[in-house]
Design a protein that fits this description.
There is one protein chain. The longest helix is centred in the N-terminal third of the chain and has 11 residues. The chain has one domain. The chain has 77 residues and is an alpha+beta fold. Helices cover 38% and strands 10% of the residues. The protein is globular.
């Protein structure tokens, strides 16, 4: 992406917004992540992560998936 182009604006720093921002930034895409709360949320806004989402998170690296799986419950059905 050229530096002359405007950044991608993502509204909401929940799991999906943060994941998208990290994904794009890791591919050198300029991103602005907006959150209405004064601090980043520490509680999960999503109750489940589907296998394709987990695969995408794992592909990013950064050790994020290991921490998520360590803290979460695994539902096999």
């Amino acid at each position: 992406m050229s530096n002359s182009q405007a950044p991608i604006v993502i509204a909401g720093a929940g799991p999906a917004g943060c994941l998208l921002a990290l994904y794009l930034a890791s591919r050198d895409v300029s991103v602005v992540l907006l959150e209405k709360e004064p601090e980043l949320p520490v509680d999960l806004r999503a109750s489940t992560f589907h296998p394709p989402s987990l695969e995408m998170i794992a592909d990013l690296g950064f050790g994020i998936i290991d921490e998520m799986l360590h803290k979460g419950l695994i539902a096999d059905r």
